[in-house]
Amino acid sequence: MRLDLTGKTALVTGSTSGIGLAIAAGLGAAGARVGVNGRTKESVDRALGELREGDFVGVPGDVTTDADDVLAVLPRVDILINSLGIYGAQPAMEITDDDWRRYFETNVLAGIRLTRAYLPGMRERGWGRVVYIVGESAVAIPAHMIHLGMTKTALLAVSRGFAKEAAASGVTVNCVVAGPAHTGGSEDYVREVVGNELPWDEAQREYMRRVHPQSLIQRLIEPAEIANMVVYLSSPMASATTGGALRVDGGYVDSILP
């Protein structure tokens, strides 16, 4: 199977590190011209320095407030990957109104804003791909992060709704449900839980046993593994897949159907 995105332009929000950066790399390797997005020019420039194979363009801009800076650089895209997201542990009764709004505006409204901006052009051209990145917290709400779970559950509804809006147009809209991933400070957190004595492979297995026993692969998921699903959904090969929530969760969610 050859996933050829030559001639396509993509935008990946929140792509200066972690899963977003891996998605940008995967789309670039498949031949797409990829917009790398982050809040600051400095963070975008650092990410561009890490990317090797592909055609990348820096698109700094805070999409949680408006899309003007991004649209000025990329007024048209064929592939929109909404991967921007924030997370953090907080006792449920201590989550303030401002916290709820900030999580919703960052994790949900930013993606809606960009979809609203780019979807009409995709429909007019008769081809396009929109993908939202969510986590297992969309369906397994964590007690210590219910504000995060709320936003990820909302994205399932948003994605399904926009898929209906794009029906019969050649544009597909999907969610990718990612499981516990090996990103950012995850290694530090694993060490906090299990200590520094064990080699990394054993340490993460022990961490998964203690913290995420429902995972069937019993290891953290590499960002590139999540990116592989996104690249497929972004390709012509996935033309009959829309309105779905496709899992790259290591079997974390205890369900046969998505």
Q: Rg from C-alpha positions?
A: 18 Å
User: Spans of 5+ residues with little confidence (pLDDT < 50)?
Assistant: none
The major sheet is characterized as:
7 strands, parallel
How many domains is the backbone divided into? 2
Q: For the terminal residues, how far apart are their CA atoms?
A: 24 Å
Helix content: 40-55%
* Elements, N to C (H/E): EHEHEHEHEHEHHHE
How does the overall form come out from the CA principal axes?
globular
Number of helices: 8
Mean of residue pLDDT?
96
Q: What is the CATH C level class of the largest domain, in words?
A: Alpha Beta
CATH superfamily of the largest domain: NAD(P)-binding Rossmann-like Domain
The CATH topology annotation of the largest domain reads as Rossmann fold
CATH architecture designation of the largest domain? 3-Layer(aba) Sandwich
SSE-based structural type: alpha/beta
Order of strands side by side in the largest beta sheet?
3-2-1-4-5-6-7
